[in-house]
Fold:
Amino acid sequence: MEGKMKVALMTAIGKMEYTERDIPTPKDDEVLVKVEYVGICGSDLHYFETGAIGDFVVEPPFVLGHESGGTVVEVGKNVKHLKVGDRVALEPGKTCGHCEFCRTGRYNLCPDVVFFATPPVDGVFQEYVAHEAGLCFKLPDNVSTMEGALIEPLAVGFHAANQGGAHVGQTAVVTGSGCIGLVSMMALKAMGVSRVYVVDIVPKRLEKAMELGADGVINSLETDPVAKVMELTGGMGCDLAIETAGTEITTRQCIAFAKKGSNIVLVGYSRTGELTLPISDCLNKELTLKTVFRYRHIYPMAIDAVAAGKVDLKHLATHTFDFDDLQNAMDQSINDKINVVKAVVKVAKD
Structure:
């Protein structure tokens, strides 16, 4: 396909502008996707607000966005499993396939991954993107491309649940009810965890957690979450805790209300990158601390869960913005975190 496409550029900290670029040509093993929806991730907001995450530093102009769904409009000559018109969710990280981590199936740890919107790799706030066909997952008829864009954060939630060994009969607690906390809660429920409680300090986010299927919520400004979890579990503590808030206090709470011998999965990044924790309590309770970096081998199961009605992504997004309104979308997502739980951007016009 020849022609020009509209691309949104981060031209400076806090500044979005638009330009035109050539529509990319897919390689033999790629497909060209017309981007329809892109979710705004916390990492996008962090790059936009501060210009960096750890060692990853944005050098403007830069294209943000890595949660995407769209429709295939062109296929490379080696592509057999997709055709023009297929609607797809795009897994954003292309790995080397040859390193120790790729060869042992832990490709999310590949040191040479090329990941959308991770400097210096441009993201997908643009009208078209060429992407490896093997990383484009066909969506069933009952799953929209908006939901397809949200498969990416859902994959993080399923990976967290897998890391924690989630299963039927457990009681789990998720700290934090932002997007990742909510998808972690939904992943736990989809995997059969019997009771999932969500802890946060923002009433609207806790209301969203209940709307999406939590068994109960705890506002830690009003109630001691440790005491409440112990009450709910007959003094035993929860079987699994997933920490998504990225704060020291919530991580300490997880250690305090986790049952002896249980798992705690750390998902949220702290602002400083460092936490001071009561490791003696972890030792005394023989807790297993696990961590999450993105996901691996998750997209098919996540898509199946949505298609089967086990996960409600339709109501995860609280705000939808037009592509032309991206500056406002980013600003609102940063300045109104209480109300904007999850924003998606509609790139394609009707």
Remarks:
- The chain has two domains: 4-150+317-346, 157-291.
- Residues 151-163 form the longest helix (13 residues).
- The chain has a mean pLDDT of 97.
